[in-house]
Amino acid sequence: MSSVKLHPMKEVKIIIEGEHLRFVTDVLDRIKASGYTIFSSISGKGHGGFHEGHMMFNDTSSLQMVLTVVPEEKLDPILSGLKPFLERHSGSLFVLDACVLRPDHFDPADS
Question: Which helix (DSSP H) or strand (DSSP E) does residue 63 occupy?
C-alpha cells in the first residue's frame, strides 16, 4: 500500500444557467471556498430536455458547471446558500466524496 496520505474533502458540482453564475460564485466566495473551476457551455440532457453546449448569444444563455472542493464543514453553508435558489431556478447540485493530496490548498486552516 502507498505511504502517500490523502485527505478527505467534499466535491461539489453545480450546474446552472450562465445568467446565474455570479450568484453561485458569490455563495462560494462568502463561505470562503479556496477556489472553484467553471466549465462553460456544457451540453447534457435533463428534465428540460437536451441542452446544446455552444453559446447562443453569449455565455449567459448556456449551461455552466461550477466545481469546488471543500472541507466537510463548509458543505452545509454551501447547501444552505444554494437550496432556496435551486428551488426557484433550473439547475442541479451534486456532492461527492473526494480525497486530496495537499489539503492546505483547499482549507487554509490545515496549513
Answer: strand 63-70
